[in-house]
Amino acid sequence: MRWFFIWIISLPLGVFAQSNFVKIDTIKGCDCRNVSTSNLHLVEEIINTAQASDMLTACYFHCLGVFYYNDYNFLESIKNHEDALALRKKHHREFVWKSYYGLGLVYNDLGMYQKSQSFLQTAYVTEGVKRTVDSIEMLRIMANNLFEVGELRQAENYAIQAAQIETDKLWLTADASNNLAEILGREEQNKDNKKRAIEYADMTVSLYRESGEEEYYIAQALNNKAVALSNLGRYDEAIKTYKLVLNIYDEDTEPYAETLSNMGSDLSKKGDHSLAKKALVQSLKIKRDLYQKTYAYTYAPEHENLAENYDALGDMYKTLKHYQLALINLTDNFRNEDINTTPKVKDNYYVYNKPYLLQALDLKAQAALKSGNTDLAHSTYQELDAWINEFYKDLSTNQSKLTWIARAHDMYSHAIKVALEKNDKEKAFQYAEKARAVLLWQSHSQQAALSLLNDEERENYDDLLAQIRQADYNYRDAADKEKGELKRKLDSLNREFDQFEKILSDSTPEYAQRKYQPKNISLKDVQRNMLNDSTALLEYHWSADDMLYIFTLTKNDIYVDNIQLDSTFHSQIQEFYTEIGNDGDFSKFVTPGYPIYQTAFEPILKHLPNNIKKITLLPDGKLNYIPFEALPTKNDVANVHYLMDDYLFNYRYSCGNYSDSKVSDAIHTTLYVAPEFDGKNNLPQLKNPKISKHLNYGKLIKLTEKKPTKENVTREIFDADLVHFHTHAEQGRKGTGKIHLYDGGELTQDEIQGLELKPPRHAVLSACETGMGDLSKGEGVLSLGWSFVYRGVPSVVISLWKVNEKSTGELMKNYYQLLKKYPADEALQKAKIKLREQGKHPYHWSAFIHTGNPPTLHFTQNLSKYL
Question: Which of 65, 128, 202, 240 could serve as 94's disulfide partner, Cβ 3.0–4.6 Å?
């Protein structure tokens, strides 16, 4: 189902362009409400002839910015707001916030949400900003910016702040409350937020009525309530609420049609298919009468909802037909109603809404599979894969990427199922790869690339992007006779942008390296470059419907196992993680651990030749939480046999992430970080395990006791090849993981991801929970270790729980002694075996795992002691 959401943003300073105007002296008084097309030349004349002071000239520029904004001429609006800002910075800083505010609004409409957010945040904290009215409006728009880029928690926080500001203007409080209701209602997973959305919507309705606002605004609040009710599966209540909305809107308007469409979808879900069809057809008719067009992107939701209704009725031909019509209306110039065709990326179709296009393609492919047309489903998913790649290029923030990586993970789950139906195991494996660690393999793209540009280049980049967004905006709703010229202008700007990027790439090679996405690794690439006669690869894909796909790759073969999981598997993983993370009774972790082994590993044994000794492991979902080497292979508490006894394990986030790593294994400089704590900040002092004497790999830089300040660590890590942290750490819940340094200093996940470094060849995070954090579908665990991989470190040792200080020290001493002879993953495993042979519980030795390309025997050892 696709819902319609109504987002109303009040214009700055409460001003609106009007068709009437008053005398020029009123304009001189800077009353922007009176600027219109008729007197626009008078305002410009005053500016050009310098008849006004700098203060009034700035105000005139501001008024022009407001006028052009209301006229949807965003580029002219930006220009005038910038001119106003320049004057106000020089002479009247108390009004600077107004210009920042105006610019924030314009960039919000252009969809340049990060730039909008930057201007609005500056406006919000600038001295002289008016409070109450303007604060509420700014917070509301900032909440919208954050929501649009996927920063859901921050968006909610801003919306709550806006709703909590006290004001005697009830309508303003109602606006803020309605904004919060919409944001909470649109979050996909959190049921509690849906319930809160309903409460805020009810409060909004009461406030609007008390303040005497028009029924139109009440309808918006009721619409938000209905969407939240629908998301909770309370369809009868949602339909009842939609009927209240319909009683407010005029029947020949688009809001009325959109409400009908929403209601039709809910009617379909509760089984009233005849009423659903009637509502959806009526909605579509209203829109066609309004637009007088054969095709329009606003028709797509009705077609999608009609398709779902026909799907429920079992009429698969009409289901596919309406999904096809949804695709046709979401794109320009794709007009083929043959359900066996799909818009292709290479044909360069203009897409009105890429997220909706991805959704429609996914639903069409699922319907095709249901109808028995596996070929159509397979070909559709191949095109969907290409469109997902295109869509990722439009995402700028990490959070927005994570939101869509999770959605793409579900789409790729469907694609894997279809590929396996076609017995195309190679394509299924490629989909599994495309569904994982996207943020890592994009970590050198987009924002990282832009950070390389100087101020002038960045300004030119943003200007070109704004022009493209303006041209795109103009094209979307233009009359058919105007589209040809507008499309040529849009294409011309895109070519200019491509040329601009080529110049940047030629002058700054690293920009090209970071900007453009790497190619997806193929099955043959993995078999040729990552596997040998003694190494196999296991890649897991855990779908939303609890189907576990296990891809087993050997040097010459690929096998796929499908295992339907039940609820007990989730609880077994949780129980195993809890018990192995505590030094206690062996039976407590064997009991849940053995069934995990039986489900997730035993099925692939039949695919492994006897000569396989090493497993490269790519877990998914909750499997990221467990060390596979500690899984018991028998239900025998007295004599536990671990997977580690049979195989060496090395972990990876994805194949593509490490496949092209060309970092030298040579270690010329080693950095040892071991701060003094002495009980400060409630952090106990760590004993010195004397690890540094084993770090004789090249030049050794020791930051110990009081030396490990943030400044020292971030400076020395720049040139280090091997970095060892012996310290306290906290897992990265909500991205707040941190490594503790001396005297309250800390290195956070965000700071690690932004470090200026080579990067190091190998990082050992010998601290608690450095491999734990938020589990992001498709991306894995967003931990401190993940942050180092994000920054480009190809080999990292991380921990999965709160580790024991004494056994960790012993493990690390063994590890560095063995690292002189063995690759990092093998050295770590042999170090674990030494502790295990002492009869220790796996709590003491299995917390640390190695991820990435393990350094090999090419370490440059420190020869000074021999000279």
Answer: 128
